[in-house]
Amino acid sequence: MRHIISILIENEAGALSRVAGLFSARGYNIESLTVAPTEDPSLSRMTLVTRGNDDIIEQITKQLNKLIDVVKLIDLVETPHVERELMLVKIKTTQETREEIKRTTDIFRGNIIDVTAHSYVVEMTGPSDKLDAFVSAIAADNIIEVVRSGTTGISRGEKGLHL
Amino acid sequence: MELSGGQIVVQCLKDEGVEFLFGYPGGAVLHLYDALFHQEDVKHILVRHEQAAVHSADAYARATGKPGVVLVTSGPGATNAVTGIATAYMDSIPMVIISGQVSTPVIGSDAFQEVDMIGITRPCVKHNFLVKNVADLAETLKKAFHIATTGRPGPVVVDIPKDITDPKIKIPYKYPKKITMRSYNPAVKGHTGQIKKAVELLLSAQRPIIYAGGGVILGDGNKELIKLAQTLGYPITLTLMGLGAYPATDKQFVGMLGMHGTYEANMAMHESDVIIAIGARFDDRVTGRLTEFCPYAKIIHIDIDPASIAKTVKVDIPIVGEVKSVLKDMLELIKDSEIKTNPKALAAWWKQIAQWRDVQCLEYDRNSGLIKPQYVIEQLYQVTKGDAIVTSDVGQHQMFAAQYYPFDKPRRWINSGGLGTMGFGLPAAIGVKLAYPELDVACVTGEASIQMCIQELSTALQYKTPVKIINLNNRYMGMVRQWQEFSYESRYSHSYMDTIPDFVKLAEAYGHVGIRIDKPEEVRSALEQAFALKDRTVFLDIITDRTENVYPMIEAGKAHHEMKLRVALGTSTDRELA
After folding, report:
1. Which of B384, B391, B448, B462 is the most exposed place for a label (fewest CB within 10 A)?
2. pTM
3. Dihedral angle, C-alpha A93, A95, A99, A105, nearest 10 °
4. Model confidence band, residue B570 (pLDDT cutoffs 50, 70, 90)
5. Does B183 lie at the interface with A, CB-CB under 8 angstroms?
6. Cis peptide before B552 (omega within 30 of 0)
7. How far is residue A13 CA from its own chain's centroid?
8. Using beta carbons and an 8 Å cutoff, which residues of A are at the interface with B?
9. Do B183 and A58 make contact, defined as CB atoms within 8 angstroms?
10. Distance from CA of residue A2 to its chain's centroid?
11. Do A33 and A20 touch, CB atoms closer than 8 A?
12. Residues B286, B295: Cα–Cα separation, whole Å
């Protein structure tokens, strides 16, 4: 099952490699990982998407908690939450396809943020499967490149992951 | 008080009460070594190879309970230390390793003797620090000692660039008395509700067994463990790392469990209905095949490290906390509990165990005319009156020592259990002897292992650490040869050397006493002679039966009840025998 582990970690040099190293050393898989400092510059917030059965996820959270730099973590999948991912897609355009691509972008509530005579750059956010859907709606031949941020997320309601 | 970075490090060690610093100088730590020159409180022990510095400090920690401290230079000094660090990490030994690093402006430029020590050691330390500012030095060292010695202990590396220890830059020094870290707060007390449940399960057991490990020794919980076992009257088995946590000569002790554990310990585990695991981690050498591990048992597991619980074996009642504190709470509850142990069931269980004991799984051929390694260990036990600290290397001799030297006290058996590091024994013995000059220290080793850190014979002379080296010389890497015999149709691929040195001459060349023994009747007197030479390191090169194997054995992929015995149990299955 897919899990989204949200981690509050000391914003120290090497903190990211401790997490990444743990996953490779113990053979856990990382689907995506995003990290950036929070409003408190001494802390970073990391969102890590992984897959595994309950036993593996239990070990992953225990091993992460064991890292000295990890302050707190939660598995977002266990609570109501929202998740988002940012994607930028560069698409080849021709006179004939420009209108169609713009319409598709509108349907997916994306924005065209760069235009040249022969290309668009589309910006889109949403849950990962929506982004997948957009990519498959565009003819593969027309896609020049895709860049995705990986999933980030937050729990719903008043409670939050903080000190 | 204004101090340079180098002086700060030395002062921090003094303030931590560090007695010995095991190390080896080099370019990146010259400022530090200069600071060491001007004081005598912290005694520096100059090893002959950095790996040995870590093993010596590690064994000092195992024997005393105090953290072991190491100082090595950057680059090769640091990488040489890594095997030692990994050894300490696998066995959860509290250590602080200070490594020199190239100066901060040149970090990352492939400077002379530069390695990414933080990156290299990350998977084998509890934590590590790179100090980038001299103002952070004292606090970082405090954190290092705090992390190393609390919770589940472990080695902590502090990597210090050369410019941080510059004698020209001085800053006010203050060593923090206490440190709190928002991201590190190890559990102490166990959960009361869980402890209550555990006590109820434990008291209602029919075929219980206590399975305790190195965590009991590390957490100084052996008194409570003895109390628990004796209050309940239950059988107790110990892991390789736990030996000494419960007196091995007591009748409730059924021996070590696992791959080379006793038949009775492994059978009792297999047939038990309640297991209480205390400071043990269900290592693969203990459990055998996991799918058949203790099929009838409910399991209580006490451990300070939540990640050790349910890692490989599902547990019914997990308790996270310090062994000592949890056992104390348990003893209180047992005293007041309305449930009492079941004497009838227990008597039947002990009767069953007695039958397994009758198999006499540790018996061996005493009339071969050859020196049996088991016999040497038995004699070592008698000559030292069971009161020596025994260090060992890794292999058959290690298992023989564990099986035939009954340890009655904790911190008397010093070996590399988790990583299985050959070369550990001699530097370990030196570290132990420095801590306890008045005690007999024996290093049980083999002719292959001893050569991995043989250069430390020189250190032993310099610091006058008269240890006794019991070299069980079978002219083979015995354990490798044993596995090749059992699993590779005796194809002894590269498990022997045909140029073994003359250890007597070697010992003498290093300034020690060397004695070669090749007759069984000489063993006793040679041991007596060695231990009588109080102020000399003695190398006993004992030529043992080269075909001897370690029995009993759970072969790879087998379960507890499928032990290979020296003398097969006839046609009856183990259960019928029971």
Report:
1. B462
2. 0.95
3. 10
4. low
5. yes
6. yes
7. 22
8. 9-10, 13-14, 17-18, 21, 25, 55, 58-59, 62-63, 65-66, 68-71, 163
9. no
10. 13
11. yes
12. 15
